[in-house]
Amino acid sequence: MEVKILGQSIFFNNQSTSAQKIIEVINQLIRDSGLFLSCLKVNGKDIYNDFEFYIEEHLNTIQVIEVEVKNRKEWLDDMLLSGARYLERSIPAVQQLADRFYQGPSAGTWTQFAQLLEGVEWLVQLIHGMEQNKLLYPGWGTNITVAASFKEALDNLAEAMENSDTILIADIINYEIMPLLESLMVDVQKTIDSEVKRNDLN
């Protein structure tokens, strides 16, 4: 098996090499380069996640793995685009989620609530990533206080959950989380329009 990465080729024995070892070598080379992993092209097929599992499942048939990397700006552009897609999709769903808590939550409501918490945590990471790279995005408007507001809202939700207060959960979603999501959506979209290269939108 040939692994093409950063202009060099590394050869592994398909029979004796583990998927874990291959991923460790790839990750180490990428860390040393200061770049970010975009995807693995395995026998011509693009793989974007669960790399080790995919390699393990296809170890005997893999001939070539091409490692595609991005610089920090390209990686953050992708994060912004993912953030915009998530916000566009989630804002209407979050409003519906609040309504369901007002009416009385079902098991499905709690599942959606857990997904919301995960999404907010990811958005906080996005904000921190943008804050750490503001020189790359002069037009970025959101600041670290928005991340702090998200965390405060999460703390309030945790307290409401401890008290089994579903009306308070709905209020926090409606009056704390929703305005933050809408504000962040404006900033993310504005930054994409002004700072992300058009060919990065594909």
Automatic annotation (TrEMBL):
Start and end residues of each DUF8042 domain: 86-192
One Pfam family from the record: DUF8042
InterPro entries xref list: DUF8042
Protein name, UniProt field: DUF8042 domain-containing protein
Species the sequence originates in: Desulfoscipio geothermicus DSM 3669
